[in-house]
Write a structure and sequence with these properties.
Blueprint: H1 3-16, E1 21-29, E2 34-41, E3 45-51, E4 65-66, H2 71-84, E5 88-89, H3 92-103, E6 109-113, E7 129-133, E8 142-145, H4 148-159, E9 163-168, E10 171-176, H5 178-186, H6 188-199, H7 214-218
Parallel strand pairs: 3-4
Antiparallel strand pairs: 1-2, 2-3, 3-5, 6-7, 6-10, 7-8, 9-10
Length: 219
């Protein structure tokens, strides 16, 4: 994305965001000329949007896309969208799952998307994630499937562009996007103490979500 295009988008956002709304993250991709914007409000909620001239590559990404080529139309469409949008909560399980991806390599593991059925085609099946356990010499990498509750969290994070994947050796490895990193920083004061305690008891060979609910932690 060119500089003048990014500036135009920022001008439009500045003109329509209310006093209790702000930009948390603004990431541009020069090859695809797209921008991924994460908005936050004073209630601790977030909203992800994509600005581009084309549809997203993955059908599993559910954030709305807006064409930025016409400034007037972009302003009208974004203003109308923000009036009606349902903002999202970022709970402790989201925080935990993102943090596990961040720290995974230090413990000899990575996360991967199951690509056995052409994951990025028009598939109706939900995404399935696996944990890669080590890479010993001369031995095959061990894949460990997550339980369904963990998969649901990862699907939600992927749909909101808080995690993404890159292709390595014909596999799709997960990473935390810039927006995801910013959300971790934003909610650190809320969740870091609970996470620090849970981190001590993590079984890196069989990752599971902690039992605490978001409501229990926030009280």
């Amino acid at each position: 994305m060119k500089d003048h295009q990014e500036i135009q988008i920022r001008v439009v956002l500045a003109s329509i965001l209310t006093n209790d709304q702000r930009i948390i993250s603004f990431h541009t991709t020069r090859k695809s000329e797209s921008a991924y914007v994460l908005l936050g409000n004073n209630q601790g909620e977030f909203l992800a949007i994509r600005l581009s001239t084309h549809k997203a590559f993955s059908v599993f990404m559910s954030i709305p896309t807006f064409d930025y080529t016409d400034k007037v139309q972009l302003t009208e469409k974004l203003r109308d969208f923000l009036r009606r949008a349902s903002w999202l909560q970022f709970n402790y399980h989201d925080y935990f799952a993102l943090s596990m991806i961040v720290f995974a390599k230090q413990h000899g593991t990575e996360f991967q998307i199951d690509d056995s059925y052409t994951i990025f085609s028009e598939a109706s099946q939900g995404m399935v994630f696996y944990q890669l356990l080590g890479r010993p010499r001369g031995k095959q990498v061990v894949l460990h499937a997550f339980e369904e509750d963990y998969n649901r969290v990862l699907r939600r994070l992927y749909a909101q562009a808080l995690i993404a994947s890159h292709s390595t050796d014909n596999t799709f490895k997960l990473y935390v996007t810039e927006a995801g990193i910013h959300l971790l920083d934003w909610f650190s004061t809320t969740y870091i103490e609970t996470f620090a305690n849970d981190y001590l008891n993590v079984n890196w060979f069989d990752l599971k979500l902690p039992k605490q609910s978001a409501d229990e932690i926030s009280k």
